[in-house]
Amino acid sequence: MARQIVIEETTVDKLVDLICEKVVSNLELVLDRRSKQPILDKEYCTIKDVCSLLNVTRQTVHLWVKKGLLENIKLGSRSTRFKTSDVLELLKKSERKRL
After folding, report:
1. Closest-CA residue to 45 (of 75, 66, 69, 68)
2. What is the 3 state secondary structure string of the chain?
3. Structure pTM?
4. Tens digit of pLDDT for each residue in 4-27?
5. Can you give the C-alpha Rg of the chain in angstroms?
6. Which of 28, 62, 70, 91 has the fewest Cβ atoms surrounding its Cβ within 10 A?
7. Beta sheet of 72-74, edge-to-edge order
8. Residue 6 belongs to some domain of the structure
9. Residue 53 lies in a domain
10. pLDDT band of 99, cuts 50, 70, 90
């Protein structure tokens, strides 16, 4: 997917700043993914893992489950797991919205 940037009435400094911001943002995403790789290697993850991967609170995860955006697996009255593949799909959707 090619994106075009239209440059009108800008200085070289502003252009360099914009490019630097994009590079830093993408580097942060790559580093963030690497730190989360052990979670991604598991078939199922905990609510704490989901919060870490998606950078959200427990309340947000519970809301998404209630709305049907994320499916959970109950392992008793106080234990819940999520399919890591489902969490990855949600992560991909959220990253697409950021770009």
Report:
1. 75
2. CCCCCCCCCCCHHHHHHHHHHHHHHHHHHHHHHHHCHHHHCCCEECHHHHHHHHCCCHHHHHHHHHHCCCCEEECCCCCEEEEHHHHHHHHHHHHHHHC
3. 0.56
4. 766 677 787 887 887 778 877 776
5. 18
6. 28
7. 44-45, 80-83, 72-74
8. no
9. yes
10. very low
